[in-house]
Design a protein that fits this description.
5 helices, globular
Length: 144
Amino acid sequence: MNLVLIVVMAALVFLVPETYETPPAPSYTSLDKALPVSRSKVIPYDILREQIVGPVLSVEILVDDTATKDQVLALAQELGRSYLADESIRRAFVFIYDSREAQERRMDESYPRSDFLSHYLAAVSIDKDTGENTIRWTAEGRGH
């Protein structure tokens, strides 16, 4: 009985397609090498959350609330270019906020939507497979 169980488990290990294997632990080295905070040419920022799962990167960025729309969009372009140049990343999503509270409460239904939308400034989406790379100004009621 034990031998049969061992044979079945061994067979399953070899039959499971690679795409269903547990992904490796997230690696932050490519992000750190791509654009350290101190090397931004536009405005300083903090990385609030980052996650890399395989070739997909998701990053949430905090900028000062005095940052202008032009500065934020220039930062978005700078980050987008750096992620396009990183060969280990196939898709990237960057979300830029000017309020830590808005970022932390982005999923909190009790947080006023108007507050969230005024502090969620921009979104960058990169998809190297389709070539669809976009930067959107998402802030509502905040023109500066």
